[in-house]
Specification:
Length: 116
């Protein structure tokens, strides 16, 4: 058996499939936040198609979804816009949120390190 043999028979996105728990998480997350938009992430070698929800402040969550058409049905039911990441990219507010969270984690770590 060669080093990469285990990857040869692997089809794209043959990992865990989307479940009702994934959809429930997305629905509940969106209900608790305002200004939510959906971003469809295409299937990759590692993951199935995913739906990324981003709130007005940049907070986000990501879960698997059955297909691009399922993502469209899901976002229409919730009344939120859906964008394709491959076409529009990720919004700046998401990157800003990540940067803020990184700063807060570093501050918390420094405070924890300074305690006797």
């Amino acid at each position: 058996m060669g080093l990469f043999d285990r990857f040869r028979n692997r089809r794209p996105g043959t990992g865990r499939r989307a479940t009702a728990a994934d959809t429930d998480h997305l629905r509940n997350w969106a209900a608790q936040r305002r200004g939510v938009e959906g971003y469809l992430e295409p299937q990759t070698l590692v993951t199935e198609t995913t739906l990324l929800l981003i709130a007005h402040d940049g907070e986000w969550t990501r879960r698997r979804i059955e297909s691009p058409s399922a993502a469209g049905r899901f976002t229409r039911r919730l009344g939120i816009p859906l964008y394709e990441v491959a076409k529009v990219g990720y919004p700046q507010r998401m990157r800003d949120y990540q940067a803020r969270q990184r700063i807060l984690r570093k501050r918390a770590q420094r405070a924890a390190d300074e305690r006797p």
